[in-house]
Amino acid sequence: MVQIDDFLIEKLISLPKSVRYSAMSIVASNADTLETTDTEPNSVGFIVRDDNGEDVFLELEYFNDGEDPFYIMNIDEISSDEYLDYLNSNKTINEITDEEN
Q: Which region holds residue 25: left if phi is over 0, alpha if psi is between -120 and 50, else beta?
């Protein structure tokens, strides 16, 4: 189970439909693999494509104590440099494709 705050839903609605759909799809497909957090929220970076095929870099802030519900605190657009920081720290999530399963 995933819990999302009302303000986050409003924020996601302001994103282009393809970005919003891809972001939620990636988060949902990776929710079971995200690192658990005892007391502090955690964050990871990921990439989606917009309607023009351009990369959009996003950050997911979440709380996951290993029990339900998995709580999505925030999703924000970040710069490519910030995404590279996540990549260098091995704190990224990726879309899971049929080939990987």
A: alpha
Mean pLDDT, range 42-56, rounded to an integer:
94
User: Sign of torsion, CA 78 80 85 87?
Assistant: positive
The one-letter amino acid code at 59 reads E
- pLDDT tens for residues 65-95? 877 778 889 999 999 999 999 999 999 998 6
Q: How far apart are CA 4 and CA 2, in angstroms?
A: 7
Task: Record the tokens describing residue 16, joined without a space.
Answer: 């282009």
The size of the chain, in residues, is 101
Q: Which of 17, 69, 16, 80 is nearest to 46 (CA)?
A: 80
